[in-house]
Amino acid sequence: MSDQIKFIVDNLNKEPFRKNYNLITFDSLEPMQLLQILNDVLAEIDPKQVVDIREEMPEHTAKRMLSLLGILKYKPPGNATDMSTFRQGLVIGSKPVIYPVLHWLLQRTNELKKRAYLARFLIKLEVPSEFLQDETVADTNKQYEELMEAFKTLHKECEQLKTSGFSTAEIRRDISAMEDEKDQLIKRVERLKKRVETVQNHQRMLKIARQLRVEKEREEFLAQQKQEQKNQLFHAVQRLQRVQNQLKSMRHAAADAKPESLMKRLEEEIKFNSYMVTEKFPKELESKKKELHFLQKVVSEPAMGHSDLLELESNINEINTQINQLIEKKMMRNEPIEGKLSLYRQQASIISRKKEAKAEELQEAKEKLASLEREVSVKTNQTREFDGTEVLKGDEFKRYVSKLRSKSTVFKKKHQIIAEFKAEFGLLQRTEELLKQRHENIQHQLRTIEEKKGISGYSYTQEELERVSALKSEVDEMKGRTLDDMSEMVKKLNSLVSEKKSALAPVIKELRQLRQKCQELTQECDEKKSQYDSCAAGLESNRSKLEQEVRGLREECLQEESRYHYTNCMIKNLEVQLRRATDEMKAYVSSDQQEKRKAIRQQYTKNIAEQENLGKKLREKQKAVRESHGPNMKQAKMWRDFEQLMECKKQCFLKQQSQTSIGQLLVIRETYQHRDYW
Q: What pLDDT, on a 0 to 100 scale, did the predictor assign at position 222?
């Protein structure tokens, strides 16, 4: 309880309540103050509840709060008998009743705000059936229901948009950026229009450009149509191939089939489909509907706490114990007819379960077969796309196998020839290795002979000289060719430079003149700019002074106008008060009784006297109720005990009567049996 009070105080001290309570001050609040706090919390959830409960009757306050708590789906703790105590506690502002309500409301304020907002539009007004016989009322009710459904869809879309991540600030930024881009494009189009207007025949050129753009768009549209038609043609060809394959497979399947086997297969399929439609699917549909109804019921109920779960677990345990007791009683009876029927029922349930299992297996096999057929069609399409050939079936596949066999014999022969070539290659490689070894031996002998003669390295140097001379001749030829190419390129470059110089000479002269003019114009522009800046600064200072003076005069004018209107209003109010005071004095002083009754003083005194009398009566009534409350409650308890006693007597009498009737029947049966025996 202390944690609950602490949570309530912490939330009441936050926004938007800002009550500045602590645990002691909150616990010492009076019942009327607690009711006012509860009303403030309810007003934060639903703005229609903003009421000062001191100006409202307690019955109306309790009715209003109970209706809103019912809309918010608040369930008070306890059973149906505690509802009366809950209502009484809500009327008198009892702390054990108010604290749980405040704790529940402050825990889920945002969720309850949404629920209260939706309740304003989604609580349906029940119209009696006799009023719905009228066409106008029926049409209005139908329109009301349609508007309610439209509100539901719009609210769902709004919630989806809120959770989708799009913010108004981002949308506004995008809109402002688009508007800036639009302005820039408009300015660019205007500049281009001004630039184009100086060109000759610009209207004709614009018309031609427009036609060109239209033709390009038409070309793109036609290309897109062409691509779509190609795709459609490709899909149509694929569909045709699939249908042809299905036709071939059906013909192949029907070639060896007989009418009796086809009829038998069709009968089996019809039986299976009828079983699925009449027995299996309705059961599954019914189970799904029950599950959906249960889930909707769970969703419609409010969030459950730990205490609610414990209560549900205790109820489940009690029901399970009752079920076990009933089963034990049934087993104790052990009636033979029920035993035989239970055997038949068990056999029937086993058969039905086996039937359902086989039906599910058959359904899974059909689905697997369909998926495999789809995979086969996909694979055939892929192979057709890769090499353009179809998957072979039947006789074509046999012919293909025979071709493969003939090709395999040819492959074996070729493979044997390749093996012979490989063996010959090995022999040649070995001979090459032997020749290399012999060459190395000869080179070694030659080096030893050169060393003996004193001319070692003669053969190597001779080979190197021959190789270097060959390389030198090649390099000399390449150098000659490159020198010729470079001389020709230099000549071409010189001729081009001279041509460009002669062509650019008049342009350079014009450029020098234009540079001089540009320098003169820049000097003149700088002078004019300095003059403009000085003049603009002076004008800006004068403008700011004038603006300040105008602003001050406007403020003075507004103050004077407001003062004038205020004085006029005060004069009018004083005149009205003076007129009322003179009328009151005339009525109070006059000798006419009717005029005196019209006076405000007399009316107020009369109202005060009436309210005092009413207060006295209510206090007397309250006193009488308090005095008779205890005896009345005792009398009500005694009456309930009397009702229970009479109900018990009634049950005992009925049991005794049933037992006497059963005894009479047994006596009559024995007498009849004895008579038959004699």
A: 92
Per-block mean pLDDT, blocks of 10 residues, the chain (678 long): 80 82 81 85 84 80 83 73 74 83 85 83 77 80 86 83 68 85 87 77 79 88 90 86 77 65 77 79 85 78 70 85 80 56 70 78 81 78 63 66 82 86 84 85 80 70 73 72 70 76 77 82 84 83 86 89 89 88 76 68 83 91 87 89 90 84 58 47
The answer to whether residues 166 and 136 touch, using CB atoms and an 8 Å cutoff, is: no
Residue 325's CB is within 10 A of a number of other CB atoms, namely 10
Nearest to residue 103, comparing CAs of 264, 305, 274, 287?
305
Distances 249 to 5, 242, 255, 517 between C-alpha atoms, Å = 80, 10, 10, 92
pLDDT score, position 390: 57
Cβ neighbours of residue 333 closer than 8 Å, sequence gap 6 or more = none
DSSP 395: H
Rounded to 5 degrees, what are φ and ψ at 32?
Answer: -65, -40
According to DSSP, residue 590 is labeled S
Q: Looking at residue 395, what is its pLDDT? A: 64
Cα 73 from Cα 118, distance rounded (Å): 13
For 547-568, b/e burial (b = at least 16 CB within 10 A) is eeeeeeeeeeeeeeeeeeeeee
3-state secondary structure of 511: helix
Bond before 77 cis per omega within 30 degrees: no
Cα–Cα–Cα angle for 52, 53, 55, rounded to 5 degrees? 75
Q: Going by C-beta distance under 8 Å and a sequence separation of 6 or more, which residues neighbour residue 245?
A: 377, 380, 390
Nearest to 120 by CA among 31, 45, 191: 45
Mind giving me the DSSP string for 270-310? Answer: HHHHHHIIIIIHHHHHHHHHHHHHHHHHHHHSPPP-HHHHH
Do residues 37 and 19 make contact, with C-beta atoms less than 8 angstroms apart? yes
13-17's contacts with Cβ under 8 Å and 24+ in sequence apart are 16/44, 17/41, 17/44
Greatest alpha-carbon pair distance for the chain in Å reads 176
Contacts of 524 (CB under 8 A, 6+ apart): none
- Contact assessment for residue 42 and residue 20, using Cβ atoms and an 8 Å cutoff: no
Cα radius of gyration rounded to whole Å, the chain = 55
**Three-state SS at 388:** coil
Contact (CB, 8 A) for 598 and 587: yes
pLDDT of residue 571: 92
d(Cα 615, Cα 621) in Å, to the nearest integer? 10
Tokens of 487: 């001389």
Cβ–Cβ under 8 Å, residues 310 and 400: no
